[in-house]
Amino acid sequence: MGKALTAIFPGSFDPMTNGHIDIVGRCLSTFDKIIIAVLSNPGKTTLFTVEERMSLLQKEFSAQKERVEVRSFSGLLVDFANEVKTSVIIRGLRAISDFDYEAQMALMNRSLGGVDTFFLMAREENSYVSSSIVRQVAALGGSVSRLVPAHVEQALKGKFAQASK
Ligand code: PNS
């Protein structure tokens, strides 16, 4: 019997979007298990705390708990990969503009820790979706219902209602 294939899907997930959901779903047809690795970086200001970001992801993937695990990490991604004993990273690509940064990270992760990055093209309908666009539109009161699931939209409303108090 072959070894179970585990891949890490790392990111800030501030917050998770339909683009992330699509990448995880498609990876599940190739990999046995996906570890969603949420960056915990106290030096970086995020809208959602690491606990909030993880809980939105856990809620989304609660029906696939056996195959989708949500963890946080800090420090180098290759060290986390070592810790969970996998050498595969998954990243989604939307446009050519993503390429430079992604190539730089993939080469660095390969040279630091022998960890390879597998890229998936985002679906066309998600090609303009990013967490930062979602935050911006939600902050200004626009609808993000086509970009994130309903429970994430609710969480965004909660954040911005708090902020305007
Ligand atoms: O969702 P993002 O913000 O594009 O994800 C970026 C992330 C978390 C994948 C990247 O910043 C990362 O891996 N940070 C951990 C630090 C690290 O390992 N850096 C070296 C790789 S260049």
Structure report:
Helix content is 42%, strand content 19%. With 165 residues, it is of the alpha/beta class. The strands form 2 sheets. Strands 1-2-3 form a 3-stranded parallel sheet, with helices on both faces. Strand 4, helix 4 and strand 5 (116-121) form a beta-alpha-beta unit. 31% of the residues are buried. The structure holds 4'-phosphopantetheine. 4'-phosphopantetheine binds at residues 10-12, 39, 76-77, 105, 108-109.
Provide the fold topology.
Layout: E1 6-11, H1 18-27, E2 33-39, H2 50-60, E3 68-73, H3 77-83, E4 88-93, H4 96-113, E5 116-121, H5 131-139, H6 150-163
Parallel strand pairs: 1-2, 2-3, 4-5
Bound molecules: 4'-phosphopantetheine.
Summarize the structure.
This protein has 165 residues and is α/β, with parallel strands linked by helices. It has six helices and five strands, in the order E-H-E-H-E-H-E-H-E-H-H. The strands form two sheets. Strands 1-2-3 form a three-stranded parallel β-sheet, sandwiched between helices. A two-stranded parallel ribbon has the order 4-5.
